[in-house]
Amino acid sequence: MSRFLVALVAAAVLALGVIYFYDPGGAGSETLDLARSKPSVNGLYIVAIAPEAEPVETGVLHGWVLTLTVPDGAPVEDAQIEVGGGMPDHGHGLPTSPEMTTYLGEGRYRIEGVRFNMGGWWVLDFTVRAGPGEDTVRFNIRL
Predict the structure, then answer these.
(1) Which residue in 64, 76, 74, 72 sits closest to 134, CA to CA?
(2) Measured between alpha carbons, how far apart are the two ends of the chain, in Å?
(3) Partners of 50 in the β-ladder
(4) Which ranges carry the YtkA-like domain (predicted)?
(5) Model pTM greater than 0.90?
(6) Cβ(137)–Cβ(36) under 8 Å?
(7) Positions of the chain with pLDDT under 50
(8) What secondary structure letter does DSSP report for 118?
(9) In this structure, are residues 98 and 82 in contact, taking their beta carbons and an 8 Å threshold?
(10) Residue ranges of domains in the chain, CATH in brackets
């Protein structure tokens, strides 16, 4: 009987681990801020992101448009933008190295090379350097 109990507990632990690992929402994802527009950490910029195509799919490269303004709404030109991110629950970064490739005008910048290789909770991190200074912003993405 004890072998059966040990096997049952091991199966339950394994099942919970699989559910946690493959949960498309990610642990605690119900409370994530999924806003696609927000102020940067120090309030120097208002940053908005939008995928160039919806829905955002896993496993394919896609682009995003980042819109950058100062708090009074004026567009930010000539910004340098670095892109990072990953899956906090899994402890790894993005599977690609996205970068800002094109200034589209009116404070809009094309970000190319984004790929999410599985469902779950992802973050996109941006570091912005422009006239007002350097600041960062993080966006939560749930696939």
Answers:
(1) 76
(2) 43
(3) 65
(4) 48-123
(5) no
(6) no
(7) 6, 8-9, 11-27
(8) S
(9) no
(10) 28-142 (2.60.40.1930)
